[in-house]
Design brief:
Layout lengths: L2 H20 L2 H15 L9 E7 L5 H9 L3 E8 L2 H10 L4 E4 L12 E7 L9 H10 L1 E12 L4 H13 L13 H10 L2 E7 L4 H6 L13 H11 L6 H6 L2 E8 L2
Parallel strand pairs: 1-2, 1-4, 2-3, 4-5
Antiparallel strand pairs: 5-7, 6-7
Helix pairs in contact: 2-9, 5-7
Length: 258
């Protein structure tokens, strides 16, 4: 079985648990805090109808982020390799365009999209990540934005901890998944010719406790007030080199030269 087929089979097996976790109140709160922090960098996209592509779309959280947290008006298109997810999303979003495709081979129509948003996808296809970014960048219009949220490892200890988690937690597949260093991640986008707009590092205490309740339910205690409290502490370092070292995830915003 190829790695991409192994990923499809694995994700199909955990899809319902994944979706249930994404509906958790604390997860939704930390997600809103993270993405509202990113919205200030997307003002060039405001006030226009945007054609948006979400590769590896999962349950299409990208459209919620773009519309609710960024305040953008989007004509949404998304694809995923999981047939289970695509079947479910096609029923929930009948007026939108969602289809099944393999991100490692998919090539969008050139210069077709104003916005590409890829959330937690590249670490599922680490051997093809650079090519995936190049292919997707070709689908962006000049001046278009590419937004990425990805697990990263800022130091060797955290890299080791993540490897142990991937081996022992059934939500993950250590045979196919691998997080990147921040420099490695940046290299994918720079090599594709994109301009860096902003990087920040929200994978700190609030992320560890509340972002992945389907994987770590024992950490998910307290209500939204606790989420806000930990996030308020994280904000002091999430835009700094200290945050990069201690963060388990990176948000990066890129723009195609135009």
């Amino acid at each position: 079985m190829s790695k991409i087929e192994r990923q499809r089979t694995h994700f199909n097996s955990i899809a319902q648990r994944y979706e249930a976790g994404r509906q958790d109140a604390n997860h939704r709160r930390i997600k809103s805090l993270i993405w509202r922090s990113a919205g200030r960098y997307l003002t060039p996209l405001a006030g226009k109808r945007l054609k948006m592509l979400e590769p590896m779309c999962g349950y299409a959280e990208g459209i919620e982020i773009a519309e609710q947290y960024f305040g953008l008006d989007c004509d949404y298109h998304g694809f995923d390799y999981s047939d289970v997810i695509v079947n479910e999303i096609s029923q929930r979003l009948p007026n939108d365009r969602v289809w099944q495709a393999d991100v490692t081979t998919y090539r969008p129509e050139p210069d077709a999209y104003d916005l590409v948003m890829l959330i937690g996808g590249l670490h599922h296809v680490p051997d093809s990540a650079a090519q995936v970014v190049r292919n997707l960048t070709a689908g962006l219009k000049a001046g278009g934005f590419f937004i990425n949220f990805e697990p990263t490892s800022g130091n060797p200890i955290f890299r080791f901890i993540r490897k142990v988690i991937y081996r022992r937690n059934e939500i993950f597949d250590d045979q196919t998944e691998r997080a990147f260093s921040v420099d490695e991640l940046k290299g994918f986008f720079s090599a594709a010719g994109l301009e860096e707009i902003k990087l920040f590092f929200p994978g700190l205490s609030s992320y560890i406790l509340y972002y992945n309740p389907y994987a770590f339910p024992f950490l998910n205690h307290g209500g939204n007030g606790w989420v806000d409290f930990f996030f308020s502490i994280d904000k002091f370092i999430m835009n700094s080199w200290i945050g990069q070292i201690f963060s388990f995830a990176t948000v990066s915003i890129w723009r195609k030269h135009g």
